[in-house]
Amino acid sequence: MANKLAIFFKDVKVEMTKVSWPNKDELIGSTVIVLISLAILSLFIGVCDVILSKTVNIIMSRL
Predict the structure, then answer these.
(1) Domain range summary for the chain, segments of one domain joined by +
(2) Any idea what DSSP says for residue 21?
(3) Which long-range contacts (CB under 8 A, 24 or more apart) does 9-14 make?
(4) Are 14 and 7 in contact (CB under 8 A)?
(5) CA separation, residue 17 to residues 20, 21, 54, 62 (Å)
């Protein structure tokens, strides 16, 4: 069992050396894009929620 675990971690180390890691500028750029996308999506969902809530309240008040 310990031998299999050692082989596994050795293989993980080998595979991690093959990974293409982003540099600092690429990482910052990607983070900014994700945060902007998150803000836009949150705004969209918030607007949809308000519209649907008002619509349901209008429908329910007429019943």
Answers:
(1) 20-63
(2) -
(3) none
(4) no
(5) 8, 9, 54, 65
